[in-house]
Structure formats: structure tokens, C-alpha cells
Amino acid sequence: MQQAGVPARIEVVEVGPSDGLRHERTAIAAPDRVELVERALAAGLRRIEVAAFDADSREPERVLAALPRRDGVRYLALVLDGTGLDRAAAAGVDEVNVVVAATDGFADRERGSSTGQDLARWADLAARAHRGGPRPVATIAVAFGCPVEGEVSAEHVAEVARRIADAGPAEIVLADTAGAGVPTQVVRLLERVREEAPGVPVRCHFHNTRNTGYANAATAFLEGVAALDASIGGIGGSATRPGFGGTIATEDLAYLLTGMGVHTGLDADELAATGTWLGERLHREVPAMLGRTR
Question: Which domain holds residue 79?
Fold first, then answer.
């Protein structure tokens, strides 16, 4: 039953086939990646991050060539530079995601860059995408706390969002890369970002490192975000930092939202079965909890 004061629906963006699998120790071959996307579609997901064009491997092209094309389905990909953008466009990607680190320390450790350099790269890629390429989306990494520099103020993240908004993003994603955020922080950060980037849809990406991911997701939803990221099985995190939790699990998020009377269009049982299937291929039990109750 729909509860008073609760939004009627939310879009869930599946990031497991890309962001999730790229941080797993066990490599998953292209056919299994394609099957994962097909299972996600069967469970009702319609916006799926399927690839990362961040290396010379041609696997993203092989995966995208094998994916079904359906009305209402959008495929997303991570890109790091102009070459990646060109490859993504040629492969038929609908949206490209460009990451901007909120702190210089994280940008330097991950890519040998700085926040300023990330912003310049975003502006260049967004301009190119606006000239007939895929829709450009910007993700602000470590927006809720940084493993290198510690706390990150809402004011600083809002200023980064303002500079991102200058280049016309289709969406801004606030990512809790370290899983450090709490619900009150979610409220404050959304408030400040909306002030500095009015009219730009906001999506949130939460990790469950400290068991706050689902509380943060529910808070962001109640605060009216356009969409939430999730990963089937709750896979992801960081292969080089084993203590970092994965992205919140799609099946667990679907269960939570459905219980709140929210329309997601997702089949939680089908998602849970897919999480179990994925764990078998990764040779480990996935973090998601719903599949353990079935």
C-alpha cells in the first residue's frame, strides 16, 4: 500500500555488469556478462551500466554487440577520455558516465589527476557528447567522505556540482564511494547540490561498507532523487581495498522499496535468483541478503 508522503515510484539503475564486476577478483567472460544483462532485463531493469571503456580491451564492444536492443532500454558506460567516448558511441551506448573525484587525494591515487583536472576532462567530454554523442552524466566520487582525505564538506561537493552543471549534464550522480555517509548527511548534501545545480536531476550511488547504504538510499528516495544505483548481488567495492563494501544490492533495494509501497517495476525474486547465479560464477557468496531467504 502506498504510504502518505512517500513518492510513488523510483528508477533503479543497475551497475553490476560494469562497476560491480570490474572490482571483482574473479574475471567474468563476455557471454556471462551478456547473460547477466539479459537476466537484469527479465527482472524489469531498463537502465543498465554495461561496460567501462577504460582500457584497450575490446570486450566492451563484444558485450554491447551481443546485447538485445529494446524500446525503453538504455545502456550506460563509463568513459575516461575522448577515445573511450568515441568507442562508446560507436558501440551504441546511450549514456556515458564521467567520474569527477571530489578530492585531489582520491583523484591522484586513482588516476594521477586532481579535481580540477577531472572537471576539465568532464567539460571537454560533455561538450563532445553534446555534439551528437551519448547523453553525458557526471559522477562525483567520494562525495560523502574520502579514504585519503577524510571528511568532505557539503559546500565543497556543491561547488564541484556547480562547475559540473556549467557543462550541461543530463544527470549528476552523488557517489558514496567509501560507504562513509549517513542519512543526515544525505539530506544536507542533496539540499546544497540542488541549490548550486538547480534543475539538474540527481541520482545517488551508495556502498554498504558500514551498513548505512540502505538507510542512505531510503533517505535519498524520500528526498526526491531521480534514481538510485544498485548492483545485483551487492557486488563491487574495490579489489585493492577488500574492506570496502559493494554497491547496495538491487534485490535488497527492490524488497525495501516495494515494502514501502513504491513502484519499481522490478521482480525481487528474479533478482535474488540472479544474485545467487552470479555468486556461483564468482565462486563466493554475494553480499545480498534476499537470496538467502529464498
Answer: 11-293
Q: How does DSSP assign 237-249, residue by residue?
A: S-SS-TTSPPBPB
In a domain, 1, yes or no: no
pLDDT digits (tens, 9 = 90+) for 111-132: 999 999 999 999 999 999 999 9
Nearest to 202 by CA among 138, 150, 255, 152: 138
Calculate the CA dihedral of residues 23, 29, 32, 36 and round it to 10 degrees: 30
55 within some domain: yes
CA distance 16 to 18: 5
Residue 4 lies in a domain: no
Q: What is the CATH number of the domain that holds 78?
A: 3.20.20.70
Separation between Cα atoms, residue 221 and residue 10, nearest integer Å: 7
Q: Are 22 and 246 in contact, with CB atoms under 8 Å apart?
A: no
The residue with cell 567522505 is: 145
pLDDT digits 0-9 by tens, 163-205: 999 999 999 999 999 999 999 999 999 999 999 999 999 999 9
Our count of domains for the chain comes to 1
Q: Is residue 91 part of a domain?
A: yes
pLDDT bracket for residue 1 (50, 70, 90): low
CA proximity to 44, closest of 236, 269, 248, 215: 269
Contact call for residues 53 and 77 (beta carbons, < 8 A): yes
Residue 208, CB half-sphere, CA atoms under 13 Å: how many?
24
Identify the sign of the CA torsion 129, 191, 19, 43: negative
What's the grid cell of residue 260? 514501502
